[in-house]
UniProtKB/TrEMBL annotation:
Keyword terms: Membrane, Transmembrane, Transmembrane helix
Parts of the chain that traverse the membrane: 7-25, 45-65
Name assigned to this protein: Uncharacterized protein
Length: 79
């Protein structure tokens, strides 16, 4: 049961990581000043949101590794 809980936690953390990443990226579009020129799109990255997303991915990976470890230990006959 512990491995299933860790798997669900890892999936939830990955969803939170996607939300944090989307909050950390902002696009600003500026219209062309001179006629015939293309518009300018600027992308701004917020370090705190990107760091939170990275942390969530790291913890999700650790939970996944531990879930696999528990499932291997549960099947082992030498335990």
């Amino acid at each position: 049961m512990r491995g299933i809980g860790e798997g669900i936690g890892a999936i939830a953390l990955l969803v939170v990581a996607v939300v944090c990443w989307n909050l950390g990226v902002t696009d600003s579009t500026f219209a062309a000043v001179v006629g015939g020129q293309p518009e300018f799109v600027s992308t701004r990255y917020s370090g705190s949101w990107i760091a939170a997303a990275t942390f969530c991915v790291l913890v999700a990976l650790l939970l996944s590794v531990d879930a696999v470890r528990w499932s291997v230990l549960r099947r082992s006959h030498t335990r």
